[in-house]
Amino acid sequence: MKPDMVEQVVGSAREILSRRIVNEQILPRELKEELDEKFGHNWQVVVTSGQFWAWFTHLAGYCVVFKLQRYCF
After folding, report:
1. Which regions in the chain score pLDDT beneath 50?
2. Which GO terms describe its cellular component (predicted)?
3. For position 68, which CATH number holds?
4. What is the pLDDT of residue 66?
5. How far apart are CA 55 and CA 57, in angstroms?
């Protein structure tokens, strides 16, 4: 993913986390809705507060994994 797009994705997640006490059940939905609005549909958002392993398919240049606070996105 291009660095400017990564900054926007991480910034969106950071903004959602700063709004209020985080409701972990709606955190991925809020981020997905924001990313769909900014960049178009078909975003898949997974948020976990621990370790995770994943095996998935994605378009080249359209995948980012990062950690903010205690959450992995």
Report:
1. none
2. dynein complex
3. 3.30.740.10
4. 94
5. 7
pTM for the full predicted model: 0.85
Distance of alpha carbon 34 from alpha carbon 50, whole angstroms: 24
* Residues 5-26 as b or e (16 or more Cβ within 10 Å = b): eeebbeebbeebbeeeebeeee
Locate tokens 């609005």: which residue?
A: 37
Q: Kindly give, in sequence order, each residue whose CB lies less than 8 Å from that of residue 5, ignoring residues fewer than 6 positions away.
A: 39, 64
Q: Which residue has the tokens 């095996």?
A: 55
Angle, CA 12 vertex, CA 3 and CA 52 arms, to 5°: 80
Question: With contact defined as beta carbons under 8 Å apart, do 47 and 28 qualify?
Answer: yes
pLDDT of residue 49: 87
3-class DSSP state of 6? helix
